Amino acid sequence: MRHFNYLTSDDREATFFKAPEPFDKNTPREILSYALGATLYMPGTRETIASEVLSKKNIGLASTVFCLEDSIGDSEVLSAEKNIIAQVMKIHSALNHDVIDFADLPLIFIRVRNPEQIIRLTEEMGDSARIITGFIFPKFTSESYQYLEVIKSINDQLSGPFYGMPIIESPQAIYRETRLKEMLETKRLLDSYQDLVLNVRIGATDFSGLYGIRRGPDVTIYDITVIRDCIADIINIFGRVESNYVISGPVWEYFTNGGRVLKPQLRKSPFEEFHDHNGCNGTKVRSQLLNKYVDGLIREVILDKENGIIGKTIIHPSHILPVQALYTVGHEEYLDALSILENSQGQLGVFKSHYTNKMNEVKPHYKWAQKVLLRAKNYGVFHEQNNFICLLTESVFV
Questions:
Q1: What share of the chain is helix, strand, coil (3-state, %, to 5)?
Q2: What is the mean pLDDT of residues 226-239?
Q3: Which residues have a Cβ under 8 Å from the Cβ of 192 and sit 6 or more positions away?
Q4: Whether 257 contacts 265, CB under 8 Å
Q5: Cβ proximity of 112 and 118 under 8 Å
Q6: Residue 261 has what pLDDT?
Q7: Which residues contact 240 (CB under 8 A, 6 or more apart)?
Q8: Does the pTM exceed 0.85?
Q9: Domain of 11?
Q10: Do 28 and 134 belong to one domain?
Q11: Do 173 and 139 contact (CB within 8 A), yes or no?
């Protein structure tokens, strides 16, 4: 898999100063944890899962989740399990018969309801389970060690790698009187299995439900104060550089325009000024983004990034390209990151940036620079004159 693999070689050359590098489930964890991008959830009852993956229906899809939890009804669990097993076996068979290359397969995860479900699914899938990258643990708490023990066990049995991704979304994690103790104990648990943890994910929808809140399309999750405070603590505990966890952002629920109260959040000028070599109309792209309420998503992803969060749960294919385009590294920040790392052996403490518009300070910016280069490896680096609009052409915007 490679981000933006739908681009022609000419488009890739015109867009990127440094092109994205390929990855798959066998890529080292510290690189793969930054690669998930926009992770598309599909209900486990959907009978077209395999055909959508094999036909590459969802342009730019790099990671997906087959969901057995809140996206299906409690009465649908057994039928959804059978369906997911069948869908995974179809994809595995297609790989074996060269219908699709392993390099074109998105990272596949399954969100389960309990640890026993992981055991049952992998046993029923047999060798087909090897195409799975990992499992997602909902409502994860400091007492959910069974999930991690099961992941450790199937890695031993099936010669992995298989990863776990806990979702922090329990009442204990957001209620103020229990939050700090719960998060510290959860981190201690994860630290014991850290090589098996690919991402720590945030379940803002479940958090909101505990307060009877649902954010509107004109605001971001950071405008919901009780959720913002909890996210700040998740970043504080799990996002410290010595912790080495990648935190992924919560889902954006909206995918069509239902009427606005506040002004659109995308300035006109960058789109009006944009013209690519294929003659893409930037103004039309902006209209498409606004019609699908993606301007709110774009603002939220920018705020995610500013807070050190990389990766986004999504529920609609129209979110794939905007999210991943925003993770692509700008030419300026790439040169800054390279310069900081190149001068990290004590040659300089502070120096003017290549663009001569800021000072780069080696020691406090060092970890930031490392993270930028991990993003650059997965999402590429734009040419100096390019930005995320280059990847949102009319022809590929869903």
A1: 50, 15, 40
A2: 98
A3: 148
A4: no
A5: yes
A6: 56
A7: none
A8: yes
A9: 1-17+328-391
A10: yes
A11: no
